[in-house]
Amino acid sequence: MRRNGGGGFSPLRDGVLFLLMMVFGILIAARLDQVNSETYAGRFFAIDGDTLSQNGERFRLLGIDAPELRQSCERDGKVWQCGEEARRFMQGLIEGRKVACSGGSRDRYDRLLVYCSADGRDISSAMVEAGFAVATGYFQFSDEQRQARQEKSGIWSGDFQRPQDWRREHRAAELDTPAAGVLTIIRHLLGWGNV
Which of 49, 56, 71, 158 is the most exposed place for a label (fewest CB within 10 A)? Predict the structure, then answer.
């Protein structure tokens, strides 16, 4: 005779329970990781299209890669300074606005890896949407990039070399966006990392 409700093995039930425990654990870890997060607010300056500066501290935006300052692109058969234009666009996004940046880790150049907002608007998202940066994450900013491509905005208005390829070709210091920790990405997507 078979007993009901005993501690028997049910692959479906146990699998679902395992997945729920994993998701719950990740959410708790993401929330705890926020404790290590540093937050800065105030006046910032654009170093280039994905790096900001405040009082000598440098901040590297997560999830995007903008043309290098000396990088040029082509549109309508003419060369234009897309790296400098990306820096100017970034400066326009932050100038005269309440800027806040938050992050919990640093790259090998000791830049704080951050998500930033200007008057509540995500700066990385705005850079990608305007076509002055490419998205580096799997899902982050993919809608913004799709829109920029369709509208032929910024670098999508002609031919350009991806910033990481341009750096490699020009033997510049490798500035590839370090992979953001899974917890940092989850916090940002859930709105816990928004500043």
Answer: 56
pLDDT tens across 112-170, in order? 999 999 999 999 999 999 999 999 977 889 999 999 999 999 999 999 999 989 988 88
Does residue 185 have a pLDDT over 60?
A: no
Per DSSP (E only), the strands in the chain are 38-42, 45-48, 51-54, 57-61, 64-65, 73-75, 78-80, 99-106, 112-118, 121-122, 134-135
**Shortest CA distance to 163 belongs to which of 173, 150, 176, 153?**
176
- Cα–Cα distance for residue pair 164/172, rounded to 1 Å: 10
Task: Classify residue 122 as exposed, middle or buried by CB count within 10 Å of its CB (0-12, 13-18, 19+).
Answer: buried
Best CA proximity match to 105, nearest among 178, 47, 52, 173: 178
Residue 184 vs residue 151, higher pLDDT: 151
Assess contact for 71 and 168: CB atoms under 8 A: no
